[in-house]
Design a protein that fits this description.
- This protein is of the alpha+beta class.
- It has a single domain (about 10-95, about 130-140), classed as Pnp Oxidase, Chain A (Roll).
- About 30% of the residues lie in helices and about 35% in strands.
- It has four helices and seven strands; from the N terminus they run αββββαββααβ.
- It has helices at about 10-20, 60-65, 100-115, 120-125; strands spanning about 25-30, 35-40, 45, 50-55, 70-75, 85-95, 130-140.
- It has a seven-stranded antiparallel beta sheet, with helices on both faces.
- Strand 1 and strand 2 form a beta hairpin.
- The longest helix has 13 residues, at about 100-115.
């Protein structure tokens, strides 16, 4: 499958949002097929989305059952600026940890601190790395 074309006007807008947004919705499916959307923190790195999760969560179990996922960025209050990616998720294990990813730390340092975490403690609690490779882009 060809990579997503980020050179179009819409592609450029979607890429900027991947770089700037604080939350993306990760939709997995439960083993019985029920959609399981979860708002998550993320970082765009090397043409992939990295998400950090606590172990043994519904999203982890969903990915283990079916690696096909959707990523949605929030639309405007009027329903415009819709950005939806389809892709494949992979559970990488515990590396690279979030405290070692400069972009993740820069993006979420104040939020992590606001939750009463140090970067190291957050990394220990949210120790499972999910990598999503976007394969399709749609929206308007």
């Amino acid at each position: 499958m060809p990579p997503i074309d980020f050179t179009t006007e819409f592609g450029q807008r979607a890429l900027k949002r991947l770089q700037d947004e604080q939350v993306i919705w990760l939709s997995t499916t439960s083993p019985n097929g029920t959609p399981q959307p979860s708002p998550v923190w993320f970082v765009w790195k090397d043409d992939r989305v990295l998400i950090y999760s606590q172990p043994d969560t519904p999203k982890i179990r969903g990915i283990q059952h079916n690696p096909h996922v959707a990523l949605n960025l929030n639309a405007t209050s009027s329903g415009d600026d819709v950005v939806i990616f389809g892709g494949t998720a992979e559970i990488l294990g515990t590396e690279p940890s979030s405290d070692k990813i400069a972009g993740y730390q820069a993006k979420y340092a104040s939020s992590i601190s606001g939750l009463g975490y140090t970067p190291e403690r957050f990394s220990a609690d949210y120790s499972v790395v999910i990598q999503v490779t976007p394969e399709k882009l749609r929206g308007f």
